[in-house]
Amino acid sequence: MAKRKKKPVNATQDRHTSPRVVFHLPQSLLDLIDSEAQANDRTRTGEILRALKSHYGNAGLWPPADADSDD
Fold this sequence. Notes:
The protein is an all-alpha fold. Helices cover 39% and strands 0% of the residues.
């Protein structure tokens, strides 16, 4: 039986619904994020997002004044 051919993907079409960022963390920091996420019943991504918003909020950089409830 012949395999189905995949439809070609339009190069201008984004297959993701939201932006992605990939980076490497030291294992000790990753362990801390995982333990905080588990303790607060959050996902790893949710914990990182909370930490970034808190950090930039404390610095007065978040939320941006011109932001539309992007949350």
